[in-house]
Design brief:
The chain is of the alpha+beta class. The chain contains 3 helices and 8 strands, in the order βαββββαβββα.
């Protein structure tokens, strides 16, 4: 299991955040066109991410709240997109929602940053402080998230409490 503290916020300053990330020597991994298919499950979220850079089957539990929130994540990386995996999931569970986005991916140490352009929803920034092995701890992850929120000048009013899949305007509404 991976512990993740994250925020999601609307942004009107993607260029400014991008400049800050470059000034901080963030490792730019590229821009990924991602299709996230969310499946019908009794609890939590199960999504299949199909992208040019990232392909993952992700199960997570996360409270809906503004600001930094903890997620329990279970992750499987099949490598390249696997149509057979999606076919099995669709047959067994059915698709609940689909989110289509262009995502710029950056890293500074254990912190991952996304600048997202989400079809039908607009522009967002995400900050994910990640502890893959229990060596960092939740308090430090929260401090990292808070640091970057301040550095990027993200106002509380722009924080989003829900997943993109819960927001009006995405497919399957």
């Amino acid at each position: 299991m991976i512990l993740n503290i994250e925020i999601k916020a609307r942004t009107r300053n993607a260029a400014g955040i991008r400049s800050i990330l470059q000034a901080e020597n963030a490792d730019f991994r590229g821009t990924d066109h991602q299709i996230d298919s969310y499946f019908r499950v009794p609890e939590g979220r199960l999504k299949l991410r199909e992208g040019n850079i990232e392909n993952s089957l992700i199960f997570y539990r996360r409270p809906d709240q503004e600001g930094p929130k903890a997620s329990e994540i279970h992750l499987y990386r099949p490598g390249a997109a696997d149509p057979a995996l999606k076919e099995v999931l669709v047959a067994a569970l059915g698709i609940w929602k689909v989110v289509d986005k262009q995502r710029e991916i950056y890293f500074i140490d254990n912190v991952k940053f996304h600048l997202d352009q989400v079809a039908g929803l607009g522009e967002f920034v995400e900050i994910e402080a990640i502890d893959t092995d229990g060596s960092i701890g939740e308090a430090q992850l929260r401090a990292q998230c808070a640091h970057y929120m301040q550095l990027f000048g993200i106002p509380d009013a722009d924080l989003i409490e829900h997943s993109y899949s819960d927001m009006p305007g995405k497919k399957n509404d």
